[in-house]
Amino acid sequence: MTATVDTLRGTTPPEPGGRPAGRAVTVRVGRVSARFRWRSVVVPVVALVVVVLLAAVSLGRGDYPLGVADVLRTLAGAGEVSQRFVVLELRAPRTLVGVLVGLAFGLAGALFQTFARNPLASPDVLGITQGASVGAVAAIVLSGGSAGALLGGLGVPLAALLGALVAGALLFALAWRAGLDGFRLVLVGIALWTSGNALTDYLLTRAQIYDAAAAYVWITGSLNARTWDQAAQLGISLLVLVPLALAAGRVLGVLQFGDDTARGLGVRLASAQAAVVVVAVLLVAAAVAAAGPIAFVALIVPQIAVRLTGGWRPPLLASGLLGAALVTVADLLTRTVLPEALPVGILTAAIGAPYLLWLLVRGRRTTA
Question: Is the pLDDT of residue 28 over 70?
Fold first, then answer.
């Protein structure tokens, strides 16, 4: 069995949406072949290296500063006792949760945007993170009532997880009409987003001042006081969900050609659509349960990944790794550059809000 590599230049047909595919490489091993672009491989590799370096820098920043070499030596088990305590016990859980949360949000955003064929389709716009906010705020604010006591007994992370899953179930149920349509999914999501915001504001008006302050910190999205328990729970969830999300990539590629073409190619359309949305919702639910609804990560990074790879739809692996890099660098900046240690969601919102406005203006100019 021999392996051959063919480089195709200018002969690759355009992908859906009319964008030329550009230079591609076809690898053949016997009767099995696969085609990929160099940039689709280089970008995830570079993004992974950047995430590792950013995590090492983040682990070294704080009241007890350490160099990158000291951090890497400590992670390898050769550091001093004080360095191991600072790196492994105090800083590593926060950094690891940030990396995993960014990975989950990036993957979820790529799944939603590819499925809906809309760069605005993200968990923030579709109401899933708002559902998590409702659950968390209810657990914090309504602890005196019977329903609130039940949520409070679950804990804020589990209440947020429940809220995100309920919002995802409502999104799925209300958007389903013998299948899922991307345009209807976004419209239903915007309605859920508005309803979730209104319900969260109502709960905050009933809260005591100290409960409202705690709720505001959570709904902003924060990595403060993360523990190994939270990192382990999120890591176990992603061990299951990330392979499922990557496996959905092939189905998503077929779905871009339209429902009729997908059916003609043998795709079970309803089950494939449902699987993509369910995996995306579970990724968001796991992320918000660990760190709160960190804003706009799932909106920004898939579009950045598209431009870096030169593709025609958000690449899943690159989007996840870029999401991890964005959350890690935002957390590093809030702890070391800004005058006060702010929740990481404030910085991502400051970046994402102008980007959302730019997307809206760009879309208006395109359709004009």
Answer: no
- Per-residue pLDDT tens digits for 65-106: 888 888 888 888 787 888 888 888 888 999 999 999 999 999
Burial track 81-106 (b if 16+ CB lie within 10 A, e otherwise): eebeebbbeebbbbbbbbbbbbbbbb
First CA to last CA distance, the chain: 55
What's the CA angle centered on 347, arms 107 and 194, to 5 degrees?
Answer: 70
What are 188's two structure tokens? 């239903």
Strands 24-29 vs 32-36: parallel, antiparallel or unpaired: antiparallel
Per-residue pLDDT tens over the stretch 101-127: 999 999 999 998 888 878 888 888 889
SS3 of the chain: the string is: CCEEEEEECCCCCCCCCCCCCCCEEEEEECCEEEEECHHHHHHHHHHHHHHHHHHHHHHHCCCCCCCHHHHHHHHCCCCCHHHHHHHHHHHHHHHHHHHHHHHHHHHHHHHHHHHHCCCCCCCCCCCHHHHHHHHHHHHHHCCCCHHHHHHHHHCHHHHHHHHHHHHHHHHHHHHECCCECHHHHHHHHHHHHHHHHHHHHHHHHCCCHHHHHHHHHHHHCCCCCCCHHHHHHHHHHHHHHHHHHHHHHHHHHHHCCCHHHHHHCCCCHHHHHHHHHHHHHHHHHHHHHHHCCCCCHHHHHHHHHHHHHCCCCCCHHHHHHHHHHHHHHHHHHHHHCCCCCCCHHHHHHHHHHHHHHHHHHHHHHHHC
Q: What is the pTM of this model?
A: 0.83
Sheet containing strand 3-8, edge to edge, reads 3-8, 24-29, 32-36
Contact present, 137 and 217 (Cβ < 8 Å): no
**Region 43-367: CATH code:** 1.10.3470.10
